[in-house]
Design brief:
- The structure is a single chain.
- This protein is of the alpha/beta class.
- It has one domain: 3-Layer(aba) Sandwich (Rossmann fold).
- It is built from six helices and seven strands, in the order E-H-E-H-E-H-E-H-E-H-E-H-E.
- It has a seven-stranded parallel β-sheet, sandwiched between helices.
- The longest helix has 27 residues.
- It comes from Ohtaekwangia koreensis.
- It holds the Pfam family adh_short.
- This is Short-chain dehydrogenase.
Length: about 230
């Protein structure tokens, strides 16, 4: 039986690139997003291209009940989870003092609580098997405050803290935890920006780096990955 990877928010950008990379290496896939049509397109494309199984479920990762139902869907497959990638999240620019009321709560729900509840729903099986790998897609905003980062930066700082705590809890169960902090990556979040492609990281570079970290022996873990555009932050 193939290994199994769970990627939240997997239909576009970095999530899609991660799915492509792991599917090319024989992993079956479970993923989710809010758009069912995008999920069905991904399932059809990946299964035809890589001859693996893809399981999908429409899910709003900013809603706790949806996240819990997604983890129950995964549990219902009765398959061991080898890799979990907490990738779901989104970005709204703004300043803390002037952004709309409720933005912080929305960002925390989507960017932090989604990872928290997904991990809690799936990690018990990893603990019992004493095996597994968890990647949390943080951001350069997790380590560097910048103007117009607002509540997004707050949520990503918190996600890095979550990753550090999780690593300390799980290392005794042989579960590896990596915080991934990409800089500006060429995804839909940057749509419409008048900047050349070479100023951005390729999503595939992030995916390749995750797979390289996963491929190390279980005696080693890459605790944090920082990937920035060669020409510097935007």
């Amino acid at each position: 039986m193939n290994n199994l990877i769970i990627v939240t928010g997997g239909t576009k950008g970095i999530g899609r690139a991660i799915i492509e990379k792991f599917a090319a290496n024989g992993f079956d896939i479970v993923t989710c997003s809010r758009n069912e049509n995008d999920l069905l397109e991904l399932k059809k494309t990946i299964e035809a291209k890589h001859a693996v199984k893809v399981f999908v479920r429409p899910t709003d990762m900013s809603m706790k009940d949806d996240v819990v139902n997604f983890t129950r869907f995964v549990q219902g497959l009765q398959r061991p989870v080898d890799v979990l990638v907490n990738n779901a999240g989104y970005f709204v620019p703004g300043d803390i003092s002037t952004e709309d009321d409720g933005v912080l709560e929305s960002m925390i729900n989507a960017n932090l609580y989604s990872a928290y509840h997904t991990t809690r729903g799936l990690v018990q099986g990893m603990r019992e098997r004493r095996s597994g790998y968890i990647f949390n897609l943080c951001s350069i905003a997790s380590i560097k405050a910048y103007p117009n980062g607002g509540s997004y930066a707050i949520s990503k700082f918190a996600l890095l803290g979550f990753s550090k705590c999780l690593r300390e809890e799980l290392k005794f169960f042989n579960i590896r935890v990596t915080a991934v902090m990409p800089g500006a990556t060429l995804t839909a979040s940057w749509a419409g920006v008048d900047l050349p492609e070479e100023r951005f990281i390729k999503p595939e570079d992030v995916a390749d780096t995750l797979y390289s970290a996963y491929s190390l022996s279980e005696r080693s873990v890459v605790e944090e990955i920082i990937i920035r555009p060669q020409l510097g932050d935007l």
